[in-house]
Amino acid sequence: MHVTIRLFARLRELAGASELTRQVPDGSTANDAWQALTAEFPAMADYGRSISCAVNEEYARLTVALHDGDEVAFLPPVSGG
Amino acid sequence: MLPVSEPATDRSTISGGYTDQMRPSDGGHLVTAAPLDPAAVAAQVARSGDGAVSSFVGLVRDHNAGRNVLWLDYEAFAPLALKAFEQIAAEASEKWPGARLAIHHRTGRVAIGEASVAIAAASPHRADAFAACRYAIERVKQIAPIWKHEHFEGGDVWIEGATADPSDEGARIAALERACT
Questions:
Q1: Are B148 and B60 in contact (CB under 8 A)?
Q2: B148 in A contact zone (CB under 8 Å)
């Protein structure tokens, strides 16, 4: 299945793109997509314990199952205000 | 939540010079690349039963961690940020019945001295307005999907603070404690 990956701030810079489309195995979780992403962009691995994720514009746990066409966003630690 | 007043005829702008495309969400919140208007945010939340509006305006300052800051570039995941603002407002109205919040946040380049965030909290009583306003900025810093890219003399750096987790009760309680001291 295909998922759209959205990246922000330094993660966006490390990937060189704010949006990627990737194929992941059926039954993949958000964490599976994250692991595939860090294999592709090893510099992102440092964020493993500090990222948040959102699926289809709602905060979600990394354990959430993805579905074909989902948009999963990976968020580095935030600094608004 | 309905705004207090709507321009009767001119739909192209609202108070403060925000254009129609930058209208606040139904909940009164906004993520915008346009300059913020704190007075408009305050006017937006106040109703006839309110005795107080407390406002907070966050400014870009010229120094941070020993660096001379030149400007900040703000990036946001806007649709999720608006949902985070809605959650913060709901939490505040549950804690302080009758309190209402509006949260407006800048994106893009923000110069030294300009407002990066403007929050207004309205309530029948001033103590709740103050507390809800403080609570809101603490929660924005915890859970809003917004990032500042600091440009300083000699370089630039992404500022990374809290891992955003809207369901983290410990963080929510810490924000409450700051708001109530």
A1: no
A2: yes
Class of domain B24-179: alpha beta
User: What is the reported pTM?
Assistant: 0.91
**Closest Cα in chain A, distance from residue B165 (Å):** 7
Strand A58-60 and strand A52-55: the pairing is antiparallel
In DSSP notation, A31-51 reads: HHHHHHHHHHSGGGGGGTTT-
Q: Locate the domains of chain B by residue range.
A: 24-179
B156 inside 8 A of chain A by CB: no
Encoded tokens for A11: 């993660």
In a domain, A30, yes or no: yes
Distance of CA B79 to the CA centre of its chain: 14
Residue pLDDT, tens place only, B12-51: 333 444 554 567 888 899 999 999 999 999 999 999 999 9
ipTM score assigned to the predicted complex: 0.97
Nearest to A28 by CA among A57, A5, A52: A5
Number of domains comprising chain A = 1
Any chain A CB within 8 A of the CB of B135? no
- H helices present in chain B, as ranges: 38-45, 78-95, 126-143, 169-179
Q: Do B77 and A75 touch (CB under 8 A)?
A: yes
Return the CATH number at A22. Answer: 3.10.20.30
